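Example 334.
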Amino acid sequence: MGQLRKDPTRGRWVLVRPKRGADMGGECALCPGAEGLTPPEIAAYRKDGSAPNGPGWQVRVVPETDPYFRIEHDLVREGVGMYDTITPRGASEIIVESPRHDDTLATMSEEQIGSVLWMYRDRLTDLKRDPQIRDILVSRRHKRPGVPAHHPYSRVTAIPIVFDDTRQALRKAREYFQYKRRCLYCDMVREEITAEERLVEVTPHFVLLVPYASRVPLEAWILPRQHACLFEEALRRETAVDLARLLSGYFRTLVTGFGDPAWELMLHTAPNLGMKILQSEWATVRDDYHWHVEIVGQTERANRLGGIYVNDVPPEEVAAQLREAWVRDRGRGA
Ligand SMILES: [Zn+2]
Ligand SMILES: [Zn+2]
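Predicted structure in complex with zinc ion:
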């Protein structure tokens, strides 16, 4: 069993754990027919009413076989001399996005992507019923450098602390709100729609843009135009359809116009508001925080200098290239 340890000089948490066992390789454990190779399923969408842990599913959720965080652990916070440690109680789940082994988010139907988004919502809602879970990250990698292609899946990581990046983003959003009495992200949406130069696509419910201070050349954010701090509360059938169409368009554009690069998607939603310890700190979170999606292109090695990202392509230029490729791709599809 691992430990979450806090680095007191930086205030950041590190998960210290034994090395993973070697992957068995061979047969894909996430393909239909191989359900016996994974631990019992947590949830699944089955249009044909088929039984759990067999084929017939559209989207399926299973625990990770070698999880970073486990629900069975007791939550223990300890001081070890001057240091702080917490047991890694939480959940590590895999959302299998499609029964088709070779599917990617660029080849899946919009309906299929919509079902995956709905499963994100279901898992966030379910896991947040556990009062010992404080924060949940839904993430998704495409073509991780050095790792062979595999069955398409997203990862859900639920943990007993707030992720360092989330904590920092929550603090910045709260400071902005305290000063201006407006949501930072709502202001950003307004600003970017007016400026236009970093906008890639605007739909009835979302904007897709290249952020002002992109860390890498291919970075895109999707912001809902309607203010809400929780993805899982805000998602409706109609917004899921709109978001699925936007994601499908973006990933197809990356394939047709940008040589199918590696990327990582992260869903940013407010932490578990039911958790008591920090409730005073989160008093304005419903007004000051705004859920969104960040999709960051993964280069072989991030270009950083003493922690400062060095991005050699201006975001405005990338946005123009994306707009052009998007229109070309749509022309092809029509
Ligand atoms: Zn497979
Ligand atoms: Zn907002």
